[in-house]
Amino acid sequence: MNQYFLRKECKELHAFPHIIEFAFKKISTIQFGSLTKAAHDFLRIYYVADGRFDWMIDNQHYILYPGDLALILPGQSFGGEKDLLDIGTVAWLHLGLQQLEPTGKMIMGKWSRLSDSECRSIGQILVLNNCPVLSKLKEAGTLMQHIQQEFAQQEIGYTTRINQLIEELFIVVARQLTRQNTSRRDFPQTFMKLEQTLRERLSHQWTVEEMAALVGLGNTAFSEKVKSYTGFSPLNYLINIRISEAIKLLKRPDVHVTDIALDVGFYSSQHFATTFKKLTGYTPSEFRKKNTTTPE
Amino acid sequence: MDCIVTIEIGTGAIRVAAFDLEGVIIGSVKGSYPTFHSKPGYSEQDPEQIFITMLYMLKNFLNEKIHPKNHTVVSICFSSAMHSVLAISKTGVPLGNAIVWSDNRAKKEADDLKHSDFGKSLYQMTGTPIHAMSPLNKIAWIKNNNKEWFDAAYKFLSIKTYIIQQLTGEYVVDYSVASATGLLNIHSLQWEDLALQHAGINKSQLAEAVPVFYAPKKLKRQYQTSLGLPENVKLLVGSSDGCMATLGAGVWGDEKATVTMEESGAVRVVGKEVLQDKQQRLFNYVLSDGYYVSGGPTNNVGAAFEWYAKQFGDFKKVFDLEDCIEDLLIEAGRVPAGSEGLIFLPYLQGERAPIWNANARGAYFGLNIKHEQRHFIRATIEGILFAFYNIGKTLEEHRSFTSLSANGTYAAYPLWTQMMADMFNKPVLVKQNSGPDSVACGAFLVSATEMGLYKDLEQAAQKVKLAENFQPNAQHHEIYMKLFAIFERLSTKLFDEFEAIADLQQNT
C-alpha cells in the first residue's frame, strides 16, 4: 500500500471544498504527538485496515481492530489514547458538512445528490447513535480504497465518482449503525428503543421515513410491523404519545397551553386543540379546568 | 342490533371487542403501550397513555365496526391485569407512573413478611401469596423508601380504577382486582385492617370495593358525545383478566381447570371454598360473591420460548418471529416425547408457583453427546409445560379435576396442547381458532349475566363451547412422569446454587 495523504492545500482537493483531509497510510514507526486529542467542527471517519489502535473518542476508550470504523461527529473529541497513531494501516476522511445540528438536521452541501429526507434520516441516525465504533465494516474499507484510487488516477469523471463514493460511505455507515443498534430479531425491544427516542425528542416533527430509518426498515415494512405490534400506524402512535404527555402537562396549572402544544410536538395550539378534542371530547382548556379542581 | 363491548386493560395492551347478545364476536382491536424499566427490577406504565390508548382504540372501533352497522352498545364490561398500584394526588392527578405486577422492587418487603406468623395469617385472610407483585408490599415499599411520594398520595388505585374514574368520576374497584391486592379480606369482602396497617394506609385511601356487576352511575357527557354512545349505556367494572379467562374458558365447579399460556401463565380452578395452602403456594381471588378462582402463576411461558427463538431460531426475514417459531415447532415435532432425556428448567425470570423463588434460573440438564439442536427446542417447550404441571399437581393436593381448558397465544399450537394433555394425562380442550379470546369472552358473560340473559355465572360458563379436544397418550405420560420427577427435584434441590448464581448475576 502506497502512502497517500491529501490535505486542504493540495491541488487534488481544489475540486472538493468539502474534503478537509483524506489519507490511506501505513504507519510503521511510532511518532509522539501524531494523533493528539482534539475536537473539530468537521466530521471524521477512520477505518482500520491493519493493526490495533488505541483511541479516545468523546472521552471513551476504544480499541479498534482491522475492519473497524470510527465515526467522530463535529464537536466530539478524538485522538490516540497516548496522543499517537499506533502501528498499522489506517484510512481517514475529514469532511465539512454544511450543517449537522444536535437535533439530527443534516445538510451535506451542494456536492451531494442525497435527497433532503435521506439526509434528515441519516442525520438522525448519526446523532442518535451512541456507539462511535462500527465493527467488521469491510465494505467501508473497500470504499476508502476506491476513493484513493480515483484520487490517484484522476480518470474521466473522477470528481463525480469520489463524491458518489463518499455518499455511499454515509449510507453504509448509517445502515450498519441501525443494524448494530437493533437486534433484527426482537421487534418489541427495537420498538421500545424507538419509542424512548420519540419521547426524548417529542417536539421534533418526526416523519415515518425517519422513524423507519432508525429501526433499519423500509417505510412499508416499518408501518406494517408497527401496526401489527401496537395497533397504531406510526404517526398515530406518535400522536398517542403526544396527547398522553399533553394530558400530564395540562394537569399542572403552571404550563401555558400553547407551550404544551409545541413541547409535545403539535405545530400549533390550534392543531393541538382539534386533535385533543377529537379524541377526548374536551378542548385542552376545558380538560384542564375539569382536572385541576378537587373531585367530588 | 344490541351489542356488548368488552375492554381488557392488559399487561401490555388494550383489547376492545364487541359481541352480539348470542355471544358471537362482531370484531376486536388491540392497541399496545410500553412498560418502562427505569431501574433493574422496576416495571411501570403511564396511566395517561393507557387511558388515551383505550379511548383511541374504543373510538376507532366504534366508528368502524359498530356505528356504521347501527349496532347499539347496551353494556360495556372491563377487565384488567392484577396487582397494579397508582398513587394519585388530592386533585386526582397521578403521582408518576403506575407500578405494574411484574415490578420487583418490593422483594425485601415481601421476603420479610412472608415467613413471619403475621405474614401467614395475612395470607389466610387475603388469599394473596405474599410476594413483591402484590399492592400490599408495593405500598409498603413506597412507605419505607419514598416518604414524599407516600405522603402526597391521596389514594392508591389500580390502573382500571383510574380509567373508570376518568370516564365516570367514581373511584371503584371490583372484588376480583381488590382480592389480588393482598389488602382485601376475601372472606368478609372488606378491606382488611391489619393489612392496611401494615401498608401504613387507611380505608379511605383505597377505592370502594364493589361486586363485578357494579355499574357506576353514568359515563361523563363528553365521552358519551365523543364516543357516540347512548346515555343509558351501562359500564360494568368487571373483573381481573385471570378471573375472566377462567370464566371465559367455561371453567366452573370441581371437574375442570384452566391453563392460560401467554408471556406468563397460570393454572386455575373455580370453587366455593378458599384453598388454604400451608406453604402459601396458591392464590385465591374472588370471582363473584361466594366463588373463588384459585391457582398458581408461572413467570416463564412465551417469555422463555421467545427467548429461545430469538437466540437460536432461524430468522429468514428481519423481525419475523412468527415464521421462526413455526419452523422451530416443526423441528420439535420430530423429536420423541421426553427429548431423549434432556430437561429444561425454564426459570429465566425466577419463578412464582409453586416454588416461589425469584432467584431460580434456567438450565438444560442431562445433555449428552447425541443431543441435537432440535432436542433443545422440544426440551424448552417441555420444561415450560412441566412448570404448569408442577402447579397443577400442587392444586390437586386440594382439589381434583378431570379435564383442562387451555387458552392464550400458545394454546393455539397443537404441539403444546398435546404435550399438556400427555403430561397431565387428562384431556385438554381448546376453543376454535377463530373464536374470541377467553378474557373477552368472560367479560361478555359478565355483561350478559348482568342483563339477565343467564341466570347466573355458572349457567353462563356452561354456555362456552370448546371444540378441539386433545386426548392424552398414556405412553408419553409415563415418559413425562419419569422426567418430571427429576425436574421437580432439580427445581428445589438447586436452591443454594440458585441463590449463589442470582447473587453473582446481580453483582456483575
UniProtKB/TrEMBL annotation, chain A:
Coiled coil: none annotated. SUPFAM superfamilies: Homeodomain-like, Regulatory protein AraC. The keyword Cell wall biogenesis/degradation does not apply. GO terms for molecular function: DNA-binding transcription factor activity; sequence-specific DNA binding. It comes from the Bacteria. Gene3D superfamilies: Homeodomain-like (1.10.10.60). InterPro entries: AraC-bd, Homeodomain-like_sf, HTH-like, HTH_AraC, HTH_AraC-typ_CS, Tscrpt_reg_AraC-type_HTH. Residues 192-290 form the HTH araC/xylS-type domain. PROSITE patterns: HTH_ARAC_FAMILY_1, HTH_ARAC_FAMILY_2. Keywords: DNA-binding, Transcription, Transcription regulation. This is AraC-type DNA-binding protein.
TrEMBL record, chain B:
Residues 288-448 form the Carbohydrate kinase FGGY C-terminal domain. Pfam families: FGGY_C, FGGY_N. One of its GO terms (molecular function) is kinase activity. Keywords: Kinase, Transferase. Residues 4-248 form the Carbohydrate kinase FGGY N-terminal domain. GO terms for biological process: carbohydrate metabolic process. Belongs to the FGGY kinase family. This is Gluconate kinase, FGGY family. It comes from Cnuella takakiae.
